[in-house]
User: What shape does this take?
Amino acid sequence: MSLHGKVAIVTGSGRGLGLAYAQELARQGAAVVINDVDEKTASDAVATIEAEGGRATAVVAAVGPTETAQKLLAAALESFGGVDILVTNAGVLRDKTLWKMTDDDFDTVIGVHLRGTFTCVREVATHLREAGKPGRIICIGSPTGQRGNFGQTNYAAAKAGIVGMVRTWAIELKKAGITANAVIPVAATAMTATVPYFAAAVEASERGETMPAFFRHDLGFGTSEDVAGVIAYLASDDAAHITGQAIGVGGDRIQLWSHPEPVVTAYHEGGWSTEALQAEAHELFDGQLQSVGETFPPLPEELQR
Assistant: This one.
């Protein structure tokens, strides 16, 4: 597999997961457009890629507005002569419970994650279609978008929406040879570093050691670099047959998330009146109601902090 001759745009790639994606795409041969809201962070990211013999340029702008999407595409065309790959990773958090979340908390997260994904994909996909080129769209989701999480109304809505858009784009872009997939990463980030449950894993990572097997294998929790290989693979010609999928990855684990499917189907002649449901709902739904949120197994004693 090689991405030599390919050009990738990676939003939110100044640090963390986004930087790992950009570095791996460059390692596989792609030229990369880095994006961050901080100029020094963006220039430092470019320098890490160039230090390894790769090619990169930076666009310093907040993702969300159409103008930013246009700047990203223009940078790819002007610096490297085209675009083949888009990874939409940029995001922010404004975690609060429903009753404390403000309009601004909600709109900010939706604007960056959901609208930012939409505007960037629209810009790149339109260019690829008009140029008659195949391409790869890779959008970053989250387990929160798949299952929900306490205090993350805005983030859950955005990440679930991204997967819904990806499924739609896979249908709309198929004829043009453009794939669209979502990646659901589980990795140590600034957010997970503050969660006591992950303390032993974070400590090991900070020491430059391999995380304990409980985290890498049982939880599928690892480093940013553990996710990057899936991004590079989906960006390659080898993955031309994969589209409309949500692929989870973390630590030593990879998963293919199912599309939502009914788990109970029943019929009632004349329709389901309130009275019919009162009489039959327990029999229909008991033992079949779906779980919400993620439940982690107990930490082994030696990993407790």
Summary: The longest strand covers residues 178-185. DSSP finds ten helices and eight strands in the chain. The mean pLDDT is 95. The beta strands are 7-10, 31-36, 56-60, 85-88, 135-140, 178-185, 246-250, 253-257.
